[in-house]
Design brief:
This protein is an alpha/beta fold. The chain folds into two domains: 218 residues, Growth Hormone, Chain: A (Up-down Bundle), CATH 1.20.1250; 246 residues, Vaccinia Virus protein VP39 (Rossmann fold, 3-Layer(aba) Sandwich). Helix content is 53%, strand content 16%. The protein has an eight-stranded mixed β-sheet, with helices on both faces. Strands 1-2-3-4 form a four-stranded antiparallel β-sheet, sandwiched between helices. It is elongated. The model has no long low-confidence stretch (mean pLDDT 90).
């Protein structure tokens, strides 16, 4: 095979791989402001398809006017320029557009158009351009086009799988964007260096973009925050930030936990209120915590009650790794960590029972709908020991469409739901049980005093927690019951009062 053939097939395959890798990575750039719900992915797929259609159209027209590889080199150089802007300004641009337009459907669509359509259009121009150059024999045009589209699709498949299983789990966002920029720039250079006469200005620009793609991150972006680590997993972008001895865990830009590294105590209020579940079920020997975060809830419960046995479950290995490495979580026989989807974890343990199942997955831009449905709460109830309770960290308004829907869905399964507002936050601790009768104010107050005697080192006294207790007192008649077949939790969460 000649160098010309190698060069030609390289240009067929590689830009297609970059395009699809860019589509997969786009969700990671959008997630801190818009989440990664089906609405976001619908916007991404739609805009990429629209931009590709425009690219196919323009690529065909331009190829008819200038069917030369050097012309295609300049097209790829334009794609590299837009990718360079994405590398340097992408995060700031997404943040600015989200604040300007909001993170609803319109804001998501416009942001995807502004950020990702410009590099997608020239990348999509490659296929029709190459077909025009390769179509020397009109009688074999169909064969030529089929051959090139097959190779291009193979490149798209490689880009999709490579981004999904190699790049995203192992690299943070900016190195991935830098790698994609470098790949596109090299593709442009391969075509431009053989052009006659050589376009010196274009070659200089391409060389500059190649240099930009490998610059260290701190030269591109500076910050006053002490960022200890930033890690992009298959599920989210995680960062650990420390400010004045408080270490914070952020997931897609949302705060998911914080610990005072000098004391090991939770640095956000809601974690210190979880022992209120003992007011409902005082004999908690085993607890399952779904959603690890910074592991501050599990660590605080174990410090409060060393005899407790806890299973901490999270679908993302990276979350557990960071909790252990940066937030003083200590795995042991009493504190076991499991990498699993919370619902699958419960479903696969038919013979196991817990006195408390605590749910901490209902914050952020994108909520796992399958952990909010009638079928899920029925599964949760079946895994409770007699007299067991369910605790939930809920953030937002309880009388919103999402909040009232969650309460009504839980109330379909559990006889009693108690609400505990968390001081100095917008969080609520929801506690559900079928253990009756309903506790009176006197019963809860007495339980609070007993809790103080049993655990005198509580950050929030049992008496204070008992004073905040109340049964649900909301009109849920018009609320939606979430089911596996229909659970529009992310849509309703955006519909806030």
């Amino acid at each position: 095979m000649t160098w010309s053939n190698v060069r030609f097939y390289f240009i067929v395959i590689v830009p297609a791989a970059v395009l699809m890798a860019l589509e997969m990575v786009s969700s990671r750039l959008l997630a801190p402001e818009f989440g990664s719900s089906v609405h976001v992915w619908g916007s991404i797929i739609s805009i990429f398809l629209a931009a590709m259609s425009i690219g196919y159209f323009w690529g065909g027209r331009l190829a008819d006017r200038r069917p030369e590889l050097s012309g295609l080199g300049h097209v790829l150089l334009v794609a590299a320029l837009f990718q360079a802007l994405l590398l340097v300004l992408g995060e700031a641009a997404v943040s600015s557009l989200a604040h300007l337009l909001g993170n609803g459907a319109l804001g998501t669509l416009v942001t995807v158009v502004v950020i990702f359509a410009p590099p997608t259009v020239p990348l999509a121009m490659v296929s029709p351009y190459l077909i025009r150059i390769a179509a020397l024999d009109l009688k074999a045009l169909g064969t030529t086009a089929g051959h090139l589209y097959a190779l291009s699709t193979a490149g798209s498949l490689a880009g999709t799988l490579g981004a999904t299983f190699v790049l995203i789990p192992n690299l943070s966002l900016r190195p991935i964007l830098g790698l994609l920029l470098a790949t596109t720039t090299v593709s442009a250079l391969i075509l431009l260096v053989t052009a006659r006469p050589r376009p010196r200005l274009s070659l200089l620009l391409a060389s500059s973009l190649l240099l930009l793609s490998v610059l260290p991150e701190h030269l591109l972006h500076s910050s006053d925050l002490k960022v200890l680590v930033k890690r992009m997993s298959a599920y989210q972008t995680l960062s650990v930030v420390e400010i004045e001895n408080i270490r914070y865990l952020h997931s897609d830009g949302e705060l998911h936990g914080a610990v005072d590294v000098t004391t090991g105590q939770p640095a956000i209020p809601y974690a210190r209120w979880v022992p209120a579940t003992y007011l409902i079920q005082p004999e908690i020997r085993r607890a399952a915590l779904i959603g690890v975060g910074s592991a501050s809830v599990g660590s605080y419960l174990l410090n409060t009650d060393p005899d407790l046995h806890i299973d901490q479950i999270d679908v993302d290995q990276a979350v557990i790794d960071l909790a252990i490495e940066y937030f003083q979580a200590q795995p042991s026989d009493h504190n076991r960590f499991h990498v699993a989807d919370g619902r699958r974890f419960l479903a696969e343990r038919e013979s196991e029972r817990w006195d408390l199942i605590y749910l901490d997955t209902y914050i952020g831009h994108s909520i796992p709908f399958h952990l909010s449905t009638l079928e899920f709460f029925r599964l949760v109830k079946s895994r409770l020991a007699p007299g067991g309770a369910v605790g939930m960290n809920f953030i937002g308004a309880l009388d919103s469409p999402f909040g009232s829907g969650m309460l009504k869905t839980m109330n379909e399964v559990f006889r009693f739901i108690y609400i505990v507002p968390i001081d100095r936050s917008s969080n609520y601790l929801l506690i559900a049980t079928s253990k009756g009768p309903r506790l009176s104010r006197e019963d809860v107050s007495a339980a609070g005093e007993q809790l103080d005697e049993r655990f005198p080192g509580l950050s929030v006294s049992g008496r204070d927690m008992a004073d905040s207790f109340s049964p649900i007192d909301l009109d849920l008649s018009n609320a939606t019951v979430f089911e596996d077949q229909f659970a529009p939790v992310n849509h309703l969460r955006r519909d806030r009062k």
